[in-house]
Amino acid sequence: MKKFSHYPLLLLLAIPTLGLIYVFINQEPQFSRTLYTDLDDVIPFLKIFIVPYMIWMPFLYGCFIYFYFKDRRLYYHTMLAYVVSVLICYGIYMVFQTTVPRAELLQTDLLSRMVQFVYTNDQPFNCFPSIHCLSSYLLFMAALKSKAISRRAVLVIGIVTWSIIVSTVFVKQHVVIDVFAGVMLGHLVFATISILVGQRAETTVTKKNEVSAS
Q1: Rounded to whole angstroms, how far apart are CA atoms 105 and 9?
Q2: Which of 173, 171, 178 has the alpha carbon at shortest distance from 137?
Q3: Does residue 189 register a pLDDT over 50?
Q4: CB of 114 closer than 8 Å to CB of 34
């Protein structure tokens, strides 16, 4: 019987592990701020966007698995960036708690029930920065960076990424500032890890060349 050889996929367990931590900190705090602005008043509530909002988790797993088989180094790099970024978010949530005013649901159609399901199972706290936006943007950045990912795949990942990002404000799970903070944090962490990984790779090549020369 052929042995299982894809043990690095077990790193995907980091996602539900971080999710369990989120459950513990997603509680109503004694004090919370709102970062709601006039721009958020202009953005309408569009329940159809609950669809891209709810595909976030399958999208997350799907992209990581795709990266694993197409570009193993990218898989490790992006997973590290994801874990570091989410832990930074948790640290921010613990010292700077924010909340978001949600839409009032008056209908009982399927989309409204989907929105209500999200509202019921995710308290309106831990909003700044948005992990939905952060992680989706990370995946898009990773796909853009890799030469092993086809342009068609990058396009699909990009469309899903930005659909998820805009969905967070259209279903009133986040405000605009949460979105910008999530995207910026994801960008900074991914770029920083890229620099560190690149420097380590250059150091390794230099040492190998020195050994070969001697």
Answers
A1: 40
A2: 178
A3: yes
A4: no
Q: What is the pLDDT of residue 4?
A: 65
Mean pLDDT of the chain, nearest integer: 91
165 close to 137: Cβ distance less than 8 angstroms: yes
The answer to whether residues 177 and 128 touch, using CB atoms and an 8 Å cutoff, is: yes
Residue 211 pLDDT greater than 70, yes or no: no
Tokens of 166: 């805009």
What tokens does 171 get?
């279903």
Q: How far apart are CA 138 and CA 83, in angstroms?
A: 11
Q: Backbone dihedral region of 105: left (phi > 0), alpha (psi from -120 to 50 degrees) or beta?
A: beta
pLDDT of residue 23: 87
Other C-beta atoms within 10 Å of 2: how many? Answer: 4
Q: How much is the pLDDT for 210?
A: 47
Q: Could you tell me the two tokens for 24?
A: 């513990």
Work out the pLDDT band at 204, boundaries 50, 70, 90: very low
Tell me the C-alpha distance between 111 and 114, whole Å.
Answer: 5
* pTM, 2 dp: 0.90
44 token code pair? 């309408």
In this structure, what token pair is assigned to residue 70? 């197409």
The average pLDDT across 77-102 equals: 95
Q: With H, G, I as helix, E, B as strand and everything else as coil, classify residue 98.
A: strand
CB atoms within 10 A of CB 161: 23
